[in-house]
Amino acid sequence: MGRGDKFAGLIMYFSELKDNEVSLTFEQIESIVGERLCYSAYNHKEYWYADNTHTFPNCWIDNGYKMTYLSLKEKIVTFTKVDTMSSTPKSVLITDTSNGFSFIRKQPTIPIEKVLTGIDKYYSELEIDQNARYLSWEHCYKQFVKAHKKSNLTEEEVDYLSLHLSFYLASWGMLRGSSFLLQKDYRVHIDIIKELYKPTYNSLWSIDYKGLQNQENLNILLELIDNLKTIYRDKRRNIKVVSTDISDILVTKVLLGTMGCVPAYDEYFKKGVNKYNITTQLLGKSSIKGLADYYEANKYDLETVRKAISQARQIEYPQMKMLDMAFWQLGFDSI
């Protein structure tokens, strides 16, 4: 049966809808359609996002609406009228003076619905297992943000934060193979933590996309990255390792787990942002600003999901964590 036949009632509903936002229960949608929704609609969030395998979401997409909230547990979904004035950055040649790299920034080649699906898939894994290893990010970030509200930290508090950071990094694969951290105890991060809490970097804590579009903040962020690498190089002096430098992966994972100011530039995240023309894979001002610009272009959708997750997890997820979740998952799925 074609979409025009099966979902004619729902298509007509959205074509005649005058409200900018509407929430419908699954039962109400079934009443509009005239039959019960399929098993996938009740059990798989992916069914509600645009995909070549089914056309159900086109009922609202073709009529200018986006799904902005979905709960399979509550059996309710919210649709919001799309702002037709929003646009994505045009293709333009970018030269990044922070690393001497030039690239052409193109328009993203992925619909926001698929990005939201990536976030949902990543997040669903956390909901399934209350002791999932990626939850160590939450535990670590929560303690660092809490400590940042204090004027001064005691040595015991710094020691406690160092333990959190060490376990988080271990959970995220940074204490394996040829990593020099494998040869160190958890207190190797003490000087890193003291550097993070310097007043110079106050603007970076839980920074939003607007803050990352500011050149001064980008300069401060790159200065911090360089300083963290210097500290780790000093800690590694007496360790024989294959790598001759401190990786961007390590420092960005540290920053994501403490300040929440930048995604972790690991293999899968870089693969995701590169495949869909989000930004360059090479860590630098232009790459980070590209992420901020992308967030701005899709802020309504991303903020709606971010606020819902933050409320559910009882911790304020930073905006860059949302992009980290999305493009890590999309990069991982593309393998």
Q: What labels describe this entry?
A:
335 residues, 2 domains, 3-stranded antiparallel sheet, two-stranded antiparallel sheet, 8% strand, elongated
What does this structure look like?
There is one protein chain. The chain is mainly alpha-helical. It folds into 2 domains: 3-81, no CATH class; 92-333, no CATH class. Helices cover 51% and strands 8% of the residues. The protein has 16 helices and 5 strands. The chain has helices at residues 3-6, 8-16, 26-33, 39-43, 58-61, 112-128, 136-148, 155-171, 190-196, 209-212, 215-235, 248-258, 267-275, 285-297, 299-313, 319-333, and strands spanning 21-25, 65-71, 76-81, 92-96, 101-105. The relative contact order is 0.12. The model is unreliable at 84-89 (pLDDT under 50).
Summarize the structure.
By secondary structure, the chain is mainly α. 51% of the residues lie in helices and 8% in strands.
Total strands: 5
Q: Can you tell me the number of structural domains?
A: 2
- H/I helix tally: 16
How much helix is in the residues? 40-55%
Give the class from helix and strand content and strand pairing.
mainly alpha
> What is the string of SSEs from the N terminus onward?
HHEHHHEEEEHHHHHHHHHHH
Biggest sheet architecture: 3 strands, antiparallel
The stretches of 5 or more residues where confidence is low (pLDDT under 50) are 84-89
Task: Give the strand order, joined by hyphens, for the main sheet.
Answer: 1-3-2
Q: What does the radius of gyration come to?
A: 22 Å
Tell me the strand percentage band.
5-15%
Q: Determine the mean pLDDT.
A: 88
Spatial separation of the terminal alpha carbons: 34 Å
Overall spatial form: elongated
